[in-house]
Amino acid sequence: MGINAALKKARQSRGLTQEQFVAGILSPAHYSKIERGLHDISAKDLMAILQQNKISFAEFFKQNMISQADDENSLGDQLQIAYYNQDLNQVRKLVTKIQQLPHHDLLKIKAKLIFTLLEGKRKFDVKDKNIILQRLFSGDNWLQDEFSLDLLANFGASIFTHDDFTFFFQKIFTTYNDKMSEQTEKMQTTIATICVNYLYTCAENKFVKDNKEPIYLLGQLSQTPSLVLYKIIGHFYQCYFAGDTEQVLAIKKLIKASNLENILSILPE
């Protein structure tokens, strides 16, 4: 939300006309153009309007920043959905919008990596790998940092070798074992995605001995509807590594009948 829209919202919430809202500061005609985004407002006039209408400076700018963050988070959510749907055209459009954001460098990194992955013209190079490594090790608390874990969830299986991925997963398992249900739903989703992708690499590389811990973490997820699918996938891999072909086929049939064909692409044959 821009300052013009935030001013309009503040005025309307107080039931004031434009003339009343800027009395003695600006002409109604000039202010009308500010609300419509046709003119910028000076810092001096903005402060005068806020002070005259007893609007807290801190609260006004805090709300404006939150709204801006909400806009950026919305783009991030749209990007994730387009990635899930393998919609390269939509990702391309969103990447253009995201690159125009004044800040949010982390979202720009994610957008670039997603576009690279979907474009399929080249594999991730050393520079891409270094971007994630730099982010993971840029602070002491990467294991609690949602964005670092989100990068690992989305791109770890594509960029790192199984041994590298195992190193990161072991750190995650040690941190979150028996503590999954205490995490936020978003954090549980991110960790569950890491578990599912790690299990896929285990199956792809036939590393049967490495599968018990991610399956165990998936079993610890909260009984939240949005997390049920991850639990089902955890059960799928448990059956897969146990050689229970009948159950494997039954779970795949359930997933397909639920119109979740995209999920089948991340499950081994």
TrEMBL record:
Domain HTH cro/C1-type: 7-60
One Pfam family matching this protein: HTH_3
SMART domains referenced in this protein's UniProt entry, alphabetically: HTH_XRE (SM00530)
CDD domains, per database record: HTH_XRE (cd00093)
Entry's Gene Ontology molecular function annotations: DNA binding
PROSITE patterns: HTH_CROC1 (PS50943)
Protein known as: XRE family transcriptional regulator
Originating species: Lactobacillus crispatus
Taxon lineage: Bacteria, Bacillati, Bacillota, Bacilli, Lactobacillales
